Amino acid sequence: MVAAESSEGETARIPVHLWIVGVLSLLWNFMGAYNYLASQLKLEFYMEKLTPEQLEYFYNIPWWAVAGWATGVWFALAGSIGLLMRKKWSICAFGISIVGLLVSTIHSFVVSNWYEIMGTSGVAFSLVIWVIAIGLFLYARAMGNKGVLS
């Protein structure tokens, strides 16, 4: 562990796992940002892998669901960057990303037939996204409580 001075002048230890979690979360959230951008920009090399039903779904997502998706993706990425910078605002960023994920999930599972289009693997992947999003929020909050984030 490495020592760092907190805003209160106390010395908090920076655990090695902060760097591991931070880098892994950054890579994970870069993938989410890439997926979002490729879908929204309708990049042919990316979209050609989808079925006609999946393409129709992505091309017809309402603005409020896109806004939720964008909020989830970009605030999660900001949270990862903040975590690596050891900033307490990363907790808030991860929290806001969960709100965006909730909006996006409401569209996918309540309003549309996304689960029918994407199948069991799509539902399972959605659950993984939720577990990681909540885990990152709780991890950042724990690091904030321990004085690792300032």
> Any idea how many domains?
1
The value of Rg in angstroms is 17 Å
- Please count the beta strands (DSSP E, at least 2 residues each): 2
Cα-to-Cα separation, first versus last residue: 17 Å
Coarse shape? elongated
* Helix proportion range: over 70%
Determine the structural class based on helices, strands and strand pairing.
mainly alpha
Largest sheet: 2 strands, antiparallel
Topology pattern, helix = H, strand = E: EEHHHHHH
What proportion of the residues form beta strands (DSSP E)?
A: 5-15%
Q: What oligomeric state do these chains adopt?
A: single chain
| Arithmetic mean of pLDDT | 91
Uncertain segments are none
Q: Give, in spatial order, the strands making up the sheet with the most strands.
A: 1-2
